[in-house]
């Protein structure tokens, strides 16, 4: 798996007590150790009518990304999880959607990048 791929994963809810299998964008394979590997992911949701957060990106080429419904990348909801939680890769962002995702990432994390 490589950054930019869309994967199916048990993504943790904000309250962390529960998780739901959903698509997510693989941002980074963060750490590798002898017994485990960590990946950093951004949530993808089919709730496209709720463009509520800074960094939300409506995916124009959602089918190319392997998604079943029109979807929204939520860059404000990022999690680092054990790579074992990934079920499988399902697609890849198009060049245009990837460019919008990079812009959204920079916007969300602008304070850190200064």
Topology:
Layout: E1 5-12, E2 19-32, E3 37-45, E4 56-58, E5 72-82, E6 86-92, H1 95-108, H2 110-113
Antiparallel strand pairs: 1-2, 1-6, 2-3, 3-5, 4-5
Provide a quick synopsis of the model:
With 114 residues, this protein is an alpha+beta fold.
Describe the structure in your own words.
The chain is α+β, with helices and mostly antiparallel strands and 114 residues long. It has one domain: SH3 type barrels, CATH 2.30.30. It contains two helices and six strands. Strands 4-5-3-2-1-6 form a six-stranded antiparallel β-sheet, covered by helices on one side. The longest helix is centred in the C-terminal third of the chain and has 14 residues. The radius of gyration is 13 Å and the shape is globular. The termini are far apart. The model has no long low-confidence stretch (mean pLDDT 88).
